Amino acid sequence: MNRGEAIGLIEAIGLATAIEAADAAVKSANVRLIGYEACKGDGMSTIKVAGDIGAVKAAVDAATAACAKGRGVWATKVIARPSEGIEKLIYNSQTVGYTPPVEPEAEVVVEESKAEANEAVVAETTEEFTEEVTEEVTEEATEEATEE
Fold this sequence. Notes:
- By secondary structure, the protein is α+β, with helices and mostly antiparallel strands.
- It has helices at residues 15-28, 53-66, 87-90, 107-147; strands at 6-13, 31-38, 44-51, 73-79.
- The relative contact order is 0.16.
């Protein structure tokens, strides 16, 4: 969440109404749809949008107006510059459509270690092979020289 970003919450009665609210919100203003969260009771769903304060207010108003002809909107809330403490309430695993950022794994270091180990094995095997071939050639040359 950006520090200057506002959050808009639209609690709609019924999933179809919530989808209509989300559609109206993102079409009416320059906001980002975070996702929706199913509430526990009365078939309500909360739509979550983020953006500049003016855009979020316009999006929430448009969503409310669009849903007036359906089952309606139960409640709305616009929070300008929400505190970092409530970030986990907004961006959570129960929000459908929100994908948490993935932390990069440190497998690159492991892969480099495997590559270095493989190079060491190849170098050792090559050295042993070279020594064996050199000994065989030397023995053959010595045997040929003694035979002559």
